[in-house]
Protein: FAD-binding PCMH-type domain-containing protein
Organism: Smittium angustum
Amino acid sequence: MINTKIYNKLNYRKTLGAISNFKISKNVFEFNKNYGTKNQSAYQQSRSILNNPARYTIKQTTRFQSSIVSGVNRNTLKTVSVDDLAYFKEILPETGILSTEHLGGNNEDADLLKYNTGLLIEHLGNSKVVLLPTTTEQVSKIVKYCNEKRIGIVPQGGNTGLLGGAIAYNNEVVLSVSKMNKIRSLDTDSGALVCDSGCVLENLNTYLDDYGLIMPLDLGAKGSCNIGGNISTNAGGIRYLKYGTLHGSVLGLEVVLPDGRIIHNLSTLRKDSTGYDIKQLFIGAEGTLGIVTGVSILTAKKPSNVSVALFGLKSFEDVLEMLRISKVKLGEILSAFEFTDRIIMEKVLPILKKANPLGSEHMYYVLMETSGSNREHDEQKMTDFYELLSEKNLIENGILAHDESQVASIWNIREMMTYGLTSSGDTYAFDLSIPAYLMEKSIFDFSDFLKNEGLYSGIPDTYTDPKHVVKFISGFGHMGDGNIHLNVVVDKYNDDLTHKIEDFVFNYTKNLKGSISAEHGIGVIKPRFLHYSKSEEVINIMKKIKNVFDPNGIMNPNKVLPQ
Amino acid sequence: MINTKIYNKLNYRKTLGAISNFKISKNVFEFNKNYGTKNQSAYQQSRSILNNPARYTIKQTTRFQSSIVSGVNRNTLKTVSVDDLAYFKEILPETGILSTEHLGGNNEDADLLKYNTGLLIEHLGNSKVVLLPTTTEQVSKIVKYCNEKRIGIVPQGGNTGLLGGAIAYNNEVVLSVSKMNKIRSLDTDSGALVCDSGCVLENLNTYLDDYGLIMPLDLGAKGSCNIGGNISTNAGGIRYLKYGTLHGSVLGLEVVLPDGRIIHNLSTLRKDSTGYDIKQLFIGAEGTLGIVTGVSILTAKKPSNVSVALFGLKSFEDVLEMLRISKVKLGEILSAFEFTDRIIMEKVLPILKKANPLGSEHMYYVLMETSGSNREHDEQKMTDFYELLSEKNLIENGILAHDESQVASIWNIREMMTYGLTSSGDTYAFDLSIPAYLMEKSIFDFSDFLKNEGLYSGIPDTYTDPKHVVKFISGFGHMGDGNIHLNVVVDKYNDDLTHKIEDFVFNYTKNLKGSISAEHGIGVIKPRFLHYSKSEEVINIMKKIKNVFDPNGIMNPNKVLPQ
């Protein structure tokens, strides 16, 4: 629905001769109609493209920096034998085990493919046994047995990670929590939700909707990812700006330790000051310290009004100034501030077969979301904000979306951006935390580096030398949280190039005291880069803590920690 | 300033015959004028009363449950010798050491009294050496030496804790960070503040004020407490409802480990997904794993409008319903929801020599605060909220305070409540997390228990049997966070009574899966009660983690962990 009040106010600005033009655009409706986001979430669309079987054969894949899956040294752990499988059959029903024939199982390799392949080309596991328990006690029995026999276990949720953290590269047992998907309790007063770790994020939101609540995180993979996996990778996503880190919203965890003991710590308390907060260690541990089987999390009141706006701006300075003003003027209702450069917009729109929703091209774009409890107030704040932006000549154009389908259609552009990259060539995708004001500079410096190395002309899609293998560089991301997704698209991956690019980007990030993984974890790809973000002292403490929990090293071997 | 718009609206309700009467009361002004809170914070008032030297001789003291300081077994650590002191003199200037004559120092025991006495009667330490370093390197050298020599260290900040966590009971060295009080940096865009751990909370707020920012926590002791101590006890306080736990807002810590190594982890990043989040362990560790010397914390935009209202209600059911409605109607601007029963109000007002600001007596009182970015919107939301409460007959009376001094004067009543108890007799004060809807029931059940034990008549200040040692029971607290301060005031402490009361309250809390310490930590008083809130598995892991960091056990011995 178009809000005529705002519309008139904005038109009023227009007649006053403001340069900017904040359109409640019919484009949004067209865009939405064609893409039908009302009944099909943006994620599902992305997923259907990504799930194209051809993706394993075409070159357009994304790599998280490295063509080399590191740390996958064959370890000393035992692989599953026929006897072991027989034991698992005592614990789990037939439907709870997938295993191949040579172990006395009933399945083809193909049946296990779903658990052995992730989203990216590096994600190719070789597990012969996938266990699908439905209770914490089953998990405990399995883990206890594996610990005694020194069998490696790879815990898995929705298998939507990008760093290979849930892939069994050494024929470990895959223990999927995906069949543990019951909601255990909801305190509608406090908002504390207790559920199994295998619950799909989107399903939790659907459940909560009846009670006027929402999950405190949201991400592109919501239709498949499990809450246990979100917690284990310390996932970020698009609600982070408003609801903050999982370290704050997770109230308690039930965890099966690597020796099979169960930590029953599903506290629903908001406040607890009784010594070391052990559960924090499992947030971001990617299953290397134990398997999260139950989750207690603080949900939030569902905002009664969500608005999304897309703006076009002429410079990064203007984007920065807009971010500053948005924090003051929109304050408590600002829930997302995403920026992107023009290149990615030019790449993603043709894939979506759509014109630019603004009807005009800009140097930078900002997608902004507000979530509040009073529509009239929120719209007034947004209008005041818009008027201030106009007075300061900060924006060149803008559209505002109110209803759910409009909102989804604009978010869809944001969520499809990665595909805009991978459709153009092999992509090195970085997930960095750096200060917001340095984001443009980081893109420029990266570009200069590649130019000086003779790998890039410095102008997107332009080649003045046969050695120019870089097609373009592009940055977008959660600017409000200081999280940039920095990408370089090349003709074809090669190891020399990979090392050069990684070396530059990680050193650059280290010099800015940034994070080499803002929201996607470490998995199997980044342990050898961990030292760029963590000091030797901290890595040593991490190793000692790993040893406290998992002295036999059976739990998600070779993940997170460097060798 | 009285907001006439709201005033008229509320009067309008009144003329419609609403039972409730939401007064913008002149009482508030009177109250404020007499107490002069404009130039003297409520805390300072409380402090001046609590600092009365007589408090160590009079019986009106508060005990956190136990008359027995537990876990203070003499340990095997060395105490400081003349040689040790000579070494400390190489590291620190004369002004950085307080020590008594027998060690070759220049001070009387009295000079060390400030560091050897806390707020409560149990807090009497016996340290002969207080070290006051000004740099992290000095801390590191001191700690390294003490570790080699096996000298126990008690880290101390503002020494405002209530559980004796910062008191040296076994003649350990007190290492006070209070002279480390520099602000290191502020990123005004992201709000990341980096400072020394000895900065006083209120000073940080004063500094931030110029940049339109505030600290994400606030507590009664703000004029003395240090941010390092807040983090080490995982402090809660009155902004918790809006800004949440320190586990979410602390971005990084600089910590001197028990072997003297320094963890430089003053990240200013909002997002970081690079493995185990080690800094989380120090939040709530009360200095048992290392000494926090530097802090990076996410500050919040200072709300441009803060309003505080005090309501009188007839029943706890109405308080609960009001809490539910406030979360929906006030949403993102609700920043505090405190409740109290009538008894504490009757006790505290005479001490403040004031009439009830509502001009009427009620069964329950609610103090509610909103903090928002737009005064007009906030007041509209508060008015809508008030009107809904009136329609539902949920409130009997109310006053609304807008300007800073009015707000402070109402908060002052809340902050003085503990003194309302201790002026009436010896007080057992519990700091519990339990579900909000069970708070009244917990008071009733506690009352019934004491009645059945023959210790209480069941009616406040009424004695029908000579064995009635209990004067009254009272509950108040941060209801919006599920944190109740449950108190029993008795004629005089005795150990038998102490054990009976503790046993009942802690078992009761355990049965509700509550926390025996919501926001005040464990210190030296509660380690032996830890098992009521933490399972054996978790306590074992805590001990192992302590051993990873501090194998020699020099760091704050006998605190937090049970023997």
The radius of gyration of chain A is 24 Å. DSSP finds 19 helices and 20 strands in chain A.
